Amino acid sequence: MNSQDIIYVDNNATTRVAPEVFEAMRPFLTDWYGNPSSVYDFSGKPAEAIRTARRQMGELLGADDDEIIFTSCGSESDNAVIRSALETQRGRRQLVTTAVEHPAVLNVCRTLEKQGVNVHYLGVDHFGRLNLEEAAQVITEETALVTVMTANNETGNLYPIEQLAELAHAKGALFHTDAVQAVGKIPLDLRHSQVDFLSLSGHKFHGPKGTGVLYRRRFTPFAPFVIGGHQERSQRAGTENVAGIAGMGKAAELALAHLQEENTRVRALRDKLELGLLQSCPDPMVNGDPEHRLPNTCNICFKYIEGEAILLRLANLGGICASSGSACTTGSLEPSHVLKAMGLDYQALHGSVRFSLSRYNTEAEIDKILEVMPKVVKSLRALSPFGRK
Ligand code: PLP
Fold this sequence. Notes:
Strands 2-8-7-6-5-3-4 form a seven-stranded mixed β-sheet, with helices on both faces. A three-stranded antiparallel β-sheet has the order 9-10-12. It has twelve helices and twelve strands. The chain has helices spanning 19-29, 44-61, 74-88, 103-114, 132-138, 161-170, 231-234, 242-280, 307-318, 337-341, 346-350, 363-383; strands at residues 7-8, 68-71, 94-98, 118-122, 143-147, 174-178, 197-201, 212-216, 284-286, 297-302, 320-321, 352-356. The protein starts with 6 loop residues before the first strand and ends in a 6-residue tail after the last helix.
């Protein structure tokens, strides 16, 4: 199959690199390969490219250039903050997070738990919503860090990070948000925010893979995770991924220019898809918060059939790439920990499919999915001992 024949609706897993991003990267993979830390003129262009990208990232986030730390991915940014907080907040041995975080947060917390750190995982209701009263009760003077994602990768749910940051600060704790899924999809303005740290990942908004940022509010205590040379003002060692950083900067500039489109055209396509599926498939149910959700994500369950089977048929019949859980859990037999935390029953857990759109999707693609999907669901249900009616 040709990549042009694909209908790609798995943009929460990764996104296509924008052509402008590729062009912004090219010179640093061909002619301008100098090390940005070297003193000769040949390194001037790579160093300049990093400065430009820092400004572009800052403009997207509403942050100052010196608050941007380039990392290798969202996972690294998450790891760095969590470990740093325990080091800088001496005497505080508790972390507060949620049961629906990405493994990049959850698995660090679990590892630290084994080393004696006390971790509280906030629960969610059937719609995946947090209870702020529970958060207010468990955040104490013992808490080093509260870390709650801005948007969930599976359901698209948005979380009340400003209220949570306020609760954290009231007890002297730091606040971090994993905004990997939010950046480029909803507006963020850190100048009018209480967030201390924010993680993002370039490949989720049409930048290259292997790029990330850790936003650190100026003067917030931070202990580096990758220690070595003096890159990133000694906050993250390692020779800079110049091409990747230049590409991510360009992706940030484009994301800012397209933010309005995410909220209008992409949202309208998502809504058309969701409504169409609800009307044409038997027993569907939308997973997630009906009110506070990313504009691009639709997570829907079709009872009595396997999400994996739906995915295979979608790919075979229409070249449609969707997901039945986050990319990191696909391949394991365990159902999604997010949907589990929401209390979905066995049938719903196994029959859920996520469609996540981007600005590159078209109405014709949505029409094609709406044509193929009901046939797939009906044919699989006919094979299911529970689904036959
Ligand atoms: N956090 C969230 C919410 C994610 O969705 C992902 C990736 O899917 C990550 C973190 C990890 O990002 P990366 O792949 O850049 O390490």
